């Protein structure tokens, strides 16, 4: 069952820590398959409870910020197209 507290906690964890690669793959696959909001929330909770959602280091001291970029590529069309 999803509570306001668990929802807020999971939001903070996801915001402050990167997703594990496997968790990102599972979530991406489920989103593409059309998972509904409640099932998605249950999946996120299960991954978090199993410590498979985010990469969280035991030492919670401030780490240097990382810049993560995504580059989108597209084909340019000729003016006559």
Question: Concise description?
Answer:
47% of the residues lie in helices and 0% in strands. The protein has 81 residues and is mainly alpha-helical. The chain has a domain at 4-49.
Describe this structure in words.
By secondary structure, this protein is mainly α. The chain has a domain at 4-49. The chain is 47% helix and 0% strand. The protein is built from three helices and no strands. Helix 2 runs antiparallel to helix 3. The longest helix is centred in the N-terminal third of the chain and has 13 residues, at 4-16. It is flat, with a radius of gyration of 17 Å. The mean pLDDT is 78.
Q: What's the rounded overall pLDDT mean?
A: 78
Uncertain runs: none
Assign a percent range to the helix content: 40-55%
% residues in beta strands: under 5%
Number of strands: 0
Structural class: mainly alpha
Question: Total helix count?
Answer: 3
Sheet bearing the most strands, described? none
Gap between N and C termini: 54 Å
3D shape: flat
SSE pattern, N- to C-terminal: HHH
Radius of gyration: 17 Å
Key features?
81 residues; mainly alpha
What's the layout of helices and strands?
Blueprint: H1 4-16, H2 21-32, H3 37-49
């Amino acid at each position: 069952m999803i509570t306001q507290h668990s929802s807020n906690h999971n939001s903070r964890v996801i915001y402050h820590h990167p997703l594990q690669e496997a968790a990102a793959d599972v979530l991406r696959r489920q989103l593409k398959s059309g998972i509904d909001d409640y099932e998605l929330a249950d999946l996120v909770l299960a991954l978090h409870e199993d410590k498979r959602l985010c990469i969280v280091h035991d030492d919670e001291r401030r780490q240097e910020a990382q810049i993560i970029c995504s580059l989108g590529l597209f084909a340019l069309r000729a003016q006559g197209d």
